[in-house]
Design goal:
The protein is an alpha/beta fold and 237 residues long. Helix content is 43%, strand content 18%. It is built from 7 helices and 7 strands, in the order βαβαβαβαβαβααβ. A 7-stranded parallel beta sheet has the order 3-2-1-4-5-6-7, sandwiched between helices. Helix 2 links the parallel strand 2 and strand 3. Helix 3 packs parallel to helix 4 and helix 4 runs parallel beside helix 5. The longest helix has 22 residues.
Length: 237
Amino acid sequence: MLKDKKVVIIGGTSGMGLELARLVLDLQGCPTVVGRNAEKVKDALALLNHPAKGFAADIADRQALKAIFEQTGGLDHLVITAADLVFKPFGAVTPEEIQRAINSKILGPYFAAQFAAPRLSREGSITFFSGLAAYKPSAGTSVVATVNAALEGLAKSLAVELSPVRVNAISPGVVDTPIWEHLPVAERQAFYDGVARNLPARRIGTSADLAQATLFVMTNPFVTGTVLHVDGGGRLS
């Protein structure tokens, strides 16, 4: 399935991206993880071991992305889980916070896809990560809802333009990842418990759930231009 396949994971040093890198290794693939913190890249590679590779770069840095793809050469799959999001009331969001979200969820993925596309195998894929807020926004998610919806539009457009390379988006619900570490432990657990009670699945997501979903869209040759919802029924709750 992924034996000897080269998979670049931007946002691959923690959470869902790191779990996917582990899965790629388990399936005898060759993951390359990219993260903006050099120390986290080092830590991730210590966990993953050979033949995993890693680079430190901010997804907003177009020239750094270009250099990475020049070094990786040909590849089979690109996955982008990176995000720099802001959860704030609409009137309190700053221009700098909006720009960071746009850089991480729209411009960065756009440029990464530009650099990856000429190097992807014909059977290859690009997978973006959007999110539930695009379908079920709540107070404080105006920026998140906007960039996630835009990213899904990009995925559908590129599925047509880059064919036969397949392009899809994964739309997670609430997942236990480092994105929630800004909350104190007790508050975070209360948040998780409250979300789980209202979901049809009666639990929040895990990084393993999302890694398995990503594997599906990466390897199923008849899935393209699709948004796969992995949200525990979050759109229904």
